[in-house]
Each structure stands twice: as C-alpha cells, then as structure tokens.
Amino acid sequence: MAANYVRAESPKNGAKDFDIGSLGLGTGLKFKHYERSFGFQAFVIGTIYYASEGFSTEFGSQNSVAAEIQFLIPEIIYEGMIVRYRFESQRWNMNDASLNYQRQYHGLFIGVLF
Of 6, 37, 40, 63, which has the fewest CB atoms closer than 10 Å, so is most exposed? Predict the structure, then answer.
C-alpha cells in the first residue's frame, strides 16, 4: 500500500497548478546478496493509484515504477562505501486532461560509512 502527494506551482500566471494526492497498491521484486567483501541489492516496484486533485471533483489514476541498485563495498574508505542509483517514473491520467503529467527521476548517491 502506498500514498503520495505532489504539488507543483507554475511560474506562468495562466497555467494550472498541479496539486494531486494519490492512494495505491503495488507489488515488486527484490534481490540481495552480501558477503564480507562485497554487497549488492536491487529492487523494482510497480504501483497503481487512485488520484484526486486537492479539494475538487477531479480524479483519475496514477501509475508508477521505481527501481534501484545498490553496491556496498566494505573497507575501501573508512568502514566502507555505498553507491546507489535510483530511477522513478510517474504518470497521471486524470479526467481533466490538463493534469495528465509525467515525472521522471534519476539519482546517484555515494555514501561513506564511518
């Protein structure tokens, strides 16, 4: 079960702001393998949501996919290092077509364990 809220304001005066709350269900797969010298994990999750705009009668659906891979490299620096890449994609299909937005996110994370 998942919930999210996305708000984005337009810099243009005539454009409609995006203010959507969603509640959904999803499923996914996860794999992980850890040894003393190396660790790896990966997952992918797909979710479908019921979505509604702020305090209005506009509604629709949202679907999303999130995937992540993570490497744990012990004792390379201090206690170890984590390198992670994450991808997210969200798509809204509302009864008001002006709210049919799409969002994609790519992120790289590098962390040092102390």
Answer: 37
DSSP state of 107: E
30 residue type, one letter: K
| pTM, two decimal places | 0.79
Task: Give the domain range for residue 24.
Answer: 2-113
Domain count, the chain: 1
Per residue in 63-82, pLDDT tens? 999 999 999 998 777 888 99
Residue pLDDT, tens place only, 37-71 = 899 999 999 999 999 987 778 899 999 999 999 99
